[in-house]
Amino acid sequence: MELVSDISLIRGEEELFDRTAHLFVAATDIACAADDLYTWALSRPSLTRQGERLLRGKRIRKLYRPGVLLNEQTARHLHHLSGLGAQIRIGTEEINETILLDERVAIMAGDEGKAVRSYSVISRPELVQGILSLFETAWRAATTLETFDARFADIRKETPQMLEFLTTGCKDDKAAKSLGMGVRTYQRRVSELLVALGVTSRLQVDARARELGLL
After folding, report:
1. Strand locations in the chain (E)
2. What is the pTM of this model?
3. Backbone angles phi, psi at 111, to 5 degrees
4. Cβ pair 67, 211 in contact under 8 A
5. For residue 52, what pLDDT is reported?
6. Backbone dihedral region of 60: left (phi > 0), alpha (psi from -120 to 50 degrees) or beta?
């Protein structure tokens, strides 16, 4: 771990949780923002009973991008967390992948394109408050899991077929006919799927879907 004043640079997720596990155990207010469930190990679907016990008595807020709802397993996991008392919201805007502990410590994920991802652990009050302010703004603009998922069910059901059509270059009219819908409806669903994946063009669909474990 490299210490720079009130900022610690940690390389790799294993070291991150070795160094910060005690902070998670002690924290009573945890806020988390991530693109998907695989940025932070403690958010993954394989939540243990011990992990569930750690949620009790805490204020837990989790903010995700819509892509987490495209996978049936991760969607069920989020609803399970919600049932345990965690507050979960879905936002469509870009977010900084961050964890805030008791509004005193911020953990920010670095570039995921690197071989070993780095994480910054920040305890300087002025910096933590600035990061918290960004999180609160994104949180207020996001939609509750239940509300967002209610209108997302159809997209999730059609996702496997739509991904196949998009990654194989199937024509829109043929794809729409296979799904039993009009071409305009299909194109609208494709646009919604692109937003959920967090991409801006059909050319990016294959790579992003594989990152999310959808292909």
Report:
1. 2-4, 7-11, 29-34, 59-64, 87-90, 98-101, 105-109, 118-122, 143-144
2. 0.77
3. -65, 120
4. no
5. 62
6. beta
Q: Quote the CA–CA distance of 93 and 139 in Å, as a whole number.
A: 11
The structure tokens listed for 85 are 């008392």
5-32: b or e for each residue (b if 16 or more CB lie within 10 Å)? Answer: eeebebbebeebbeebeebbeebeebbb
pLDDT on residue 159:
84
CB-based burial label for 87 (10 Å; 0-12, 13-18, 19+): middle
Mean pLDDT by 10 residues, the chain (215 residues): 67 83 89 81 50 74 88 84 91 87 92 78 93 95 90 79 91 92 91 84 87 75
Separation in Å, CA 152 to CA 69, 143, 211: 8, 12, 20
- What is the Cα–Cα distance from 51 to 97, expressed in whole angstroms? 21
Kindly state the tokens that stand for 132.
């918290």
